[in-house]
Amino acid sequence: MKTIRKFATPLTMGAFLLSAVTGVLMFFHLDTGLNKAAHEWLSWAMVVGVALHIGVNYRAFTLYLKRPLAVGIVGVFAALLAVSFLPLGGTGGSPMAAIMQGLGQAPVERVIALTGEDTGAGLARLDAIGIAAEPGQTIAALAGGDRAQQAAILSAILSGQ
C-alpha cells in the first residue's frame, strides 16, 4: 500500500496537469502537434491515478461522501454526465465543419473565384504545391479524402500565395 501511495498522488497530479492544459488548449482551438492525442490517450493515466488514489485513501473518500455538500457536488456532476449523452437539438455540429465540407464539395474554380482571382492563376498556384487540378474537380476529389490535404489545398487557394 505504501508503494502505491508513493505513485498515486503524483500520477494523478501529473495527469491532471496534462489533461487540464491540453483540454483548455483544445477548448480555445489552440492545440497543436500531439495535444489532442495526448489529451485523449494520456488521460488514461489520470483514470489510473485517481483509481489508485481512491484505493489508498478509501476511508477518507467514504467519509467525504457522508457530507451533504460533497454528495450534492458529486450528484450535480453525475447529472451533467447523464445529460451529456442526450442528443442536441437542431442541426448540431460545428459551423466550420459545415463550411469545410461545403468547400470540399465545390468545384475548384468556384473556390478560386471566391478569392477574386483568375482561375488560371489559382490552378497554377495549386500546381506549384504539387496539386494538378482541372476545372470541374472538387476540392475533396483533389484531396483524395484526406482532410489535412483538403485543408492544405484550401489554404493555398484562399491565401493567395
UniProtKB/TrEMBL annotation:
The keyword Acetylation does not apply. Residues 8-58 form the Flavinylation-associated cytochrome domain. Pfam families: DUF4405. InterPro entries: DUF4405. Signal peptide: none annotated. The chain crosses the membrane at residues 7-29, 41-61, 68-88. It comes from the Bacteria. Keywords: Membrane, Transmembrane, Transmembrane helix. This is Flavinylation-associated cytochrome domain-containing protein. It comes from Lutimaribacter pacificus. The lineage of its organism: Bacteria, Pseudomonadati, Pseudomonadota, Alphaproteobacteria, Rhodobacterales.
